[in-house]
């Protein structure tokens, strides 16, 4: 079974996500941001039906809402006045700016949420194991230890609880001493086990020479095609940005919201870059 | 040409006066399947580590080890790492990576294999060991048996010529253990790979070996064929007699070994019995059952419809279980069937999600009272987590803290009983797995407990020590106290327990007295029962039972 976008080579997917983040920060125009929001929502829906996104709804709503409200309250810049009180005025510019900022925040969060589903830790580490093999291995080992140590500490605590009658009464000081003791036990135990793990690494020739790195991913023609597509559409967007397109000047005075012909063309490129996963999945469906 | 040759090998750990290995000489031909056995601390592991150059312990070595005619230390590093493979006892502690495939290629990466070669070897090895299905899973989610196969696969991918296995099945359930051993044997048969392995549960491993080496106190005392090994063990004294696997032990004890080949496997044992079938056996009589019917007295501990869930997984499902005073209950179950969780729930360390637990008829509340803790002792699966103090001696003293003079006397008794004297000043974590089990069990026995809950107490423990545990637990139960233990060791349970239960898929499935439990099982049963079942001879579960039954019926003369 093909998994479409997620099956592409990690290099391609990683370039996609870096590109998305870059473009989100570069293109500062309400139309761009709005369409990006919709597309990224679609990308999220594609992978898990938006479950993970839904889990983050609180945090996302909060941040976006706060920015949306705080910006008009703190900024009085701009010429198009929306409402004027005795000591404060709210301008169109400030409201729009806040809206765009919160839109970008939402988009960035949505990007990261789908990123986690498409590029899990091991894929990410694979990307960097080529550059820094020893460090990548170290990170893998360290990451694996964190849940292990936590679980073990829980177990030590439990077993020690079953022995508590051996000490007559537990004062605060005694209890503190006990927690330190637990950490100490955790440390000696984990060191002991670390030695065993080191033995098993050495037994399999760790340190005999330069390590090679196994790649479970092969570079296939469709990866090349996808990369080409991303480079062209991304490059076009970047070129457009250097020409001053896709960016709305807001302060001190809001520019025109409408787009020029070149602006529309840029939006097209922008959308095709952001919507790339959707395109891939749709293409896959048509092929089936 | 010899694959491996040890010439007068001796070894001294730094700071110890007695040598760990003394004057060991043997040679092993290519393709041999060699079992190395002996009591704990006899130097088996040290010897294996001497052969695996990367793991050679620091210390003073004398003599020489030759691999393929070359002294081991002159072997190029990548050859030493690749051609001599080693798998250790603990399945989980050897795993380095998070992902199964990454773990599999770890060794190959170390030796700088090309991606193409790694892919091919990985495919071949996984297909051979039947690991395809788990390849994309995280290593943490594998069962103990799968983990150990993965460790084997990762070593095999390097194409070793000599495979060293240090108690590889010590942590596996009986079914997984047999599967692992047979996989290794098949490798040996099909590829001619030389294998040297150590093992404590010899019932399954012993018949597979081509040759047996017995060590004791750092010396090699026997080197020869398995059948001769059994006879040698019988004659050389009580220290070695415990090593004899059940079936030959039974046959030697009933005196039927004169002439002819000594049976080692269940199949051979049955054939041996059939050859004597036409002899005038007395009619089959049921063994006298001791206290088989339980009077409807109050259980000491009773679980009623207990459910227990970890985050997403339901481990115990509506489990109902009664423990009576004076019992010694053994709980079986595959790796990951929830045995450990059940014990923790019974120890009151994990509150069940639903259901109730009563202790002496009083219902447990969620709050753990000191009184409850005082009465129940719990030995965790990893004895490392049990210890609180710097030295073994301090542990033992803490355990008998509230003791008067009489208890101190018992402390001394326990120390000598478990022969802990040499360890008293050592840190508990510096001991081997079996020694740690001993110390933890000693501490528990010093406390004044009513209920003892032991999670796999026989793991990594040698036969001699196992029979000591068995005696102690039985006498503990006879004092009107109660023991519940989980184990993978059917032979141990058969001699120790009064009742056995099987935990499967979160439910207690079968529960019965030792005799009836083992008589109803096909695989979770002892070698002796598998040998005597349906043969017309009085069926027996343990060696002692068989000897008693057969000899009680004018046995000796009939059988020999």
Automatic annotation (TrEMBL), chain A:
Database matches in InterPro entries: ABC/ECF_trnsptr_transmembrane
Localization: Membrane
Chief place of localization: membrane
Membrane topology of this protein: Multi-pass membrane protein
Keyword Ligase appears in the UniProt entry: no
Transmembrane portions of the chain: 21-47, 53-73, 94-115, 127-146, 227-251, 263-282
Name of protein: ABC transporter permease
């Amino acid at each position: 079974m093909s998994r479409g976008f997620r099956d592409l080579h990690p290099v391609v997917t990683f370039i996609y996500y870096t590109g998305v983040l870059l473009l989100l920060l570069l293109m500062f125009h309400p139309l761009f941001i709005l369409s990006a929001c919709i597309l990224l929502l679609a990308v999220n829906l594609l992978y898990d039906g938006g479950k993970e996104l839904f889990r983050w709804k609180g945090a996302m709503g909060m941040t976006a809402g706060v920015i949306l409200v705080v910006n008009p309250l703190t900024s009085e810049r701009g010429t198009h006045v929306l409402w004027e009180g005795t000591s404060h005025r709210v301008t169109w510019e400030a409201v729009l700016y806040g809206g765009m900022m919160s839109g970008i925040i939402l988009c960035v969060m949505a990007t990261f949420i789908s990123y986690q589903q498409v590029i899990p830790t091991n894929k990410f580490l694979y990307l960097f194991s080529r550059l820094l093999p020893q460090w990548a291995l170290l990170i893998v080992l360290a990451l694996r230890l964190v849940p292990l140590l936590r679980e073990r500490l829980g177990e030590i605590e439990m077993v020690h609880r079953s022995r508590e009658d051996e000490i007559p009464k537990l004062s605060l000081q005694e209890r503190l001493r006990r927690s330190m003791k637990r950490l100490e036990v955790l440390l000696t135990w984990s060191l002991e086990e670390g030695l065993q793990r080191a033995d098993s690494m050495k037994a399999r020739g760790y340190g005999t020479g330069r390590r090679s790195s196994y790649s479970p991913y092969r570079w296939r023609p469709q990866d090349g095609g996808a990369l080409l597509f991303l480079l062209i559409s991304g490059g076009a967007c970047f070129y457009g940005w250097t020409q001053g397109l896709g960016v709305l000047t807001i302060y001190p005075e809001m520019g025109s919201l409408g787009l020029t012909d070149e602006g529309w063309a840029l939006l097209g490129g922008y959308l095709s870059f952001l919507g790339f996963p959707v395109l891939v999945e749709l293409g896959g469906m048509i092929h089936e | 040409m010899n694959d491996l040759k040890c010439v007068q090998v001796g070894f001294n750990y730094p700071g110890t006066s007695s040598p760990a290995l003394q004057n060991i000489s043997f040679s092993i031909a290519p393709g041999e399947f060699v079992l190395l056995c002996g009591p704990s601390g006899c130097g088996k592991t040290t010897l294996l580590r001497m052969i695996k150059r990367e793991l050679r312990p620091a210390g003073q070595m004398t003599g020489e080890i030759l691999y393929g005619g070359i002294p081991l230390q002159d072997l190029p590093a990548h050859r030493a790492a690749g051609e001599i493979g080693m798998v250790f006892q603990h399945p989980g502690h050897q795993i380095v990576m998070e992902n199964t495939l990454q773990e599999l290629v770890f060794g190959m990466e170390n030796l700088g294999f090309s991606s193409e070669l790694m892919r091919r070897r990985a495919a071949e090895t996984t297909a051979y060991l039947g690991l395809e299905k788990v390849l994309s899973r995280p290593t943490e989610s594998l069962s103990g048996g799968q983990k150990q196969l993965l460790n084997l696969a990762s070593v095999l991918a390097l194409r070793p010529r000599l495979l060293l296995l240090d108690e590889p099945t010590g942590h596996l359930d009986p079914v997984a253990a047999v599967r692992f051993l047979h996989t290794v044997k098949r490798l040996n048969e099909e590829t001619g790979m030389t294998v040297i392995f150590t093992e404590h549960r010899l019932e399954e491993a012993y018949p597979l070996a081509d040759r047996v080496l017995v060590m004791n106190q750092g010396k090699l005392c026997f080197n020869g064929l398995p059948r001769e090994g059994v006879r040698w063990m019988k004659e050389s004294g009580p220290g070695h007699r415990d090593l004899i696997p059940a079936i030959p032990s039974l046959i030697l004890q009933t005196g039927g070994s004169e002439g002819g080949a000594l049976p080692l496997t269940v199949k051979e044992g049955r054939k041996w019995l059939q050859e004597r079938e036409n002899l005038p056996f007395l009619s089959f009589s049921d063994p006298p059952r001791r206290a088989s019917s339980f009077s409807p007295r109050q259980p000491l501990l009773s679980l009623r419809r207990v459910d227990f869930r970890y985050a997403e997984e339901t481990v115990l499902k509506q489990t109902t279980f009664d423990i009576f005073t004076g019992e010694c209950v053994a709980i079986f179950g595959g790796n990951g069937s929830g045995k450990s969780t059940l014990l923790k729930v019974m120890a009151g360390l994990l509150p069940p999600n639903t259901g109730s637990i009563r202790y002496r008829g009083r219902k447990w509340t969620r709050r753990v009272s000191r009184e409850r803790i005082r009465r129940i002792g719990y030995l965790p699966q990893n004895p490392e987590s049990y210890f609180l103090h710097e030295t073994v001696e301090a542990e033992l003293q803490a355990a008998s803290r509230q003791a008067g003079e009489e208890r101190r006397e018992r402390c001394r008794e326990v120390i000598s009983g478990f022969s802990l004297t040499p360890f008293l000043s050592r840190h508990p974590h510096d001991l081997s797995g079996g020694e740690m089990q001993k110390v933890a069990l000693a501490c528990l026995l010093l406390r004044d407990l009513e209920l003892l809950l032991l999670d796999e107490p026989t793991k990594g423990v040698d036969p001699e020590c196992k029979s000591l545990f068995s005696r102690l637990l039985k006498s503990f139960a006879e004092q009107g106290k109660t023991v519940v233990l989980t184990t993978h060791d059917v032979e141990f349970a058969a001699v120790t327990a009064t009742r056995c239960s099987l935990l499967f898929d979160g439910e207690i499935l079968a529960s019965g007295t030792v005799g009836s439990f083992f008589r109803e099982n096909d695989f979770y049963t002892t070698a002796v029962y598998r040998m005597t079942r349906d043969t017309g001879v009085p069926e027996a579960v343990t060696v002692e039972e068989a000897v008693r039954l057969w000899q009680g019926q004018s046995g000796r003369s009939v059988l020999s």
